[in-house]
Amino acid sequence: MPAGHGLRCRTRDLFARPFRKKGYIPLSTYLRTYKIGDYVDIKVNGAVHKGMPHKFYHGRTGRVWNVTKRAIGVEVNKQVGNRIIRKRIHVRVEHVQPSRCAEEFKLRKLKNDQLKAEAKAKGEVISTKRQPEGPKPGFMVEGATLETVTPIPYDVVNDLKGGY
Amino acid sequence: MPYVKAQKSKSYFKRYQVKFKRRREGKTDYRARTRLINQDKNKYNTPKYRLVARFSNKDIIAQVVHASIAGDIVLAAAYAHELPHYGLEVGLTNYAAAYCVGLLLARRVLKQLEMDDEYEGNVEATGEDFTVEPAESRRPFRALLDVGLVRTTTGNRVFGVLKGALDGGVDIPHSEKRFAGFDKDSKQLDPEVHRKYIFGGHVAAYMRTLMEDEPEKYQSHFGEYIKRGIEPENMEGMYKKVHAAIRADPTCKKSEKEPPKEHKRYNLKKLSYEERKAKLIDRLKALNSADAVENDSDEDDD
User: Fold this and answer.
1) In chain A, where the domains are located
2) Mutate: best of A17, A21, A22, A24, partner B, most B CBs <10 A
3) Which of B17, B23, B39 sits opposite A22 (nearest CB)?
4) Structural domain of residue B185, as residue ranges?
5) Is residue B34 less than 8 Å (CB to CB) from chain A?
6) Is B281 part of a structural domain of the chain?
7) Helix, coil or strand: residue B74
8) Coil, strand, or helix at residue A110?
9) Is B7 a member of any domain?
10) Residue B209 falls within a domain, yes or no?
């Protein structure tokens, strides 16, 4: 029999629920709100059969471009041949999690705005650019004693006794 | 003893998946809950209110709740044990009391949201099916009935709470199929029968039959009613007064409670993180000083 290439082919383990997490899904998935422009991770929940994305999108992160009654439109990058297409798919909320990829950026933005506002109040000029880690500063080695190490002459008797 | 194969092996426990806590306690029906809470995503953060009606053996609890990830938030609550303030002291878990609790909750919610002048609801409780009409300025307050684990039969008291809330002015999608007085065969609600239930007519009828047939049982069963001088004839008047009192002042009255007495502690109090760290430092210091007294060498400072 030839191999099948159906929609959910080769997803036996990918879409399976994890150990001891079968059955009802926790309600916080339904209570989350998503706004257009948010980043979301797509993680298929095998317990909910409607609105499942294709297995290619499992584990991808995309931006929200549409919000409907029970589903979210997510824009995901997919490489097709020699180019990357921005694909727009609709996914039910059970298969979607808020992504933390932009979290650090958002926090940094807030902090930088705060720092800039403070500096403006004081009249200083600050740069909020991130700097890469530079080379470590030099230091003097403390408590260094000189110990000369020389090889000991080979002692056949001792070595044989140990090794047998 | 014959060899009995152990039913619950170690692997049984290892593989066992516990149900959600509230399901284990038998308190929450998650199938119903997911459908009640799920809000359309394109309504973003608009809360979806549920009218929760729960009955215990001696009390009725009615709440208007909306869900959040941290936990459900209660907008307003009404209990049957508050009804003595409004003049109803006995029969706190019957259909009539359920109607009063629903009415009280609805008026409380509307007063809290300052909608109580616009949405009077049905002042005269007739037992007919009443739906709130939208007024000019604001749309009516909408809630969904959450019955919990109760079997929804015709004439159940949760629908008494529902009717009370409807007449109070809250918009709750419903059908009259389960109100007391709905006739299965003719598929119609008989408002007269429903009205009888709202005013405790069924209780009054039972009181009358007992008075005639079994006076001793009447004394034992309706003792509290007799003590307060409640006759089957003046039940309707009593409930009308309670309805009026509820509409007049639905605010919650806080009762004064003394602070609870200090009890003797029978077990050790758990230390806080700072206290535990301080204890550890003291112990290390004591160890170090003890070692310094004993000998100085060969002691790792772990």
Assistant:
1) 11-98
2) A24
3) B17
4) 19-248
5) yes
6) no
7) strand
8) helix
9) no
10) yes
| The predicted structure's pLDDT at residue A4 | 85
A67/B67 touch (CB, cutoff 8 Å), yes or no: no
Report how far Cα B45 is from the mean position of its chain's Cα atoms: 25
**What's the pLDDT tens digit per position in A36-65?**
999 999 999 999 999 999 999 999 999 999
Residue B13 covered by a domain:
no
Which CATH number covers residue B88?
A: 3.30.420.100
Q: What is the pLDDT of residue A146?
A: 87
Residue A164 has pLDDT above 70, yes or no: no
In chain A, residues with a C-beta closer than 8 Å to the C-beta of B69 are: 28, 31-32
Q: In the prediction, which pLDDT does B188 show? A: 87
CA distance A114 to chain B (A): 27
Q: From A23, which residue of chain B is nearest by alpha-carbon distance?
A: B19
Sheet holding B49-55, edge to edge: B73-79, B60-66, B49-55, B143-146
d(CA B3, CA B163): 60
Q: What is the pLDDT of residue B295?
A: 64
* Three-state secondary-structure class, residue B138: coil
What stretch of H or E contains A66?
Answer: strand A61-67
User: Is this complex's ipTM strictly greater than 0.95?
Assistant: no
- Residue with the bigger pLDDT between B291 and B83: it is B83
* Packing angle, helices B201-213 and B191-198, rounded to 10: 70
- Number of separate domains in chain B: 1
Q: Which residue of B has its CA nearest to A68?
A: B42
Average pLDDT taken over every residue of chain B: 88
pLDDT tens per residue, range B37-65: 988 888 888 999 999 999 999 999 999 99
Q: Which fold has domain A11-98?
A: SH3 type barrels. (2.30.30)
Compute the nearest-CA separation of A25 from chain B (Å): 9
CB contact under 8 Å between B15 and A20, yes or no, is yes
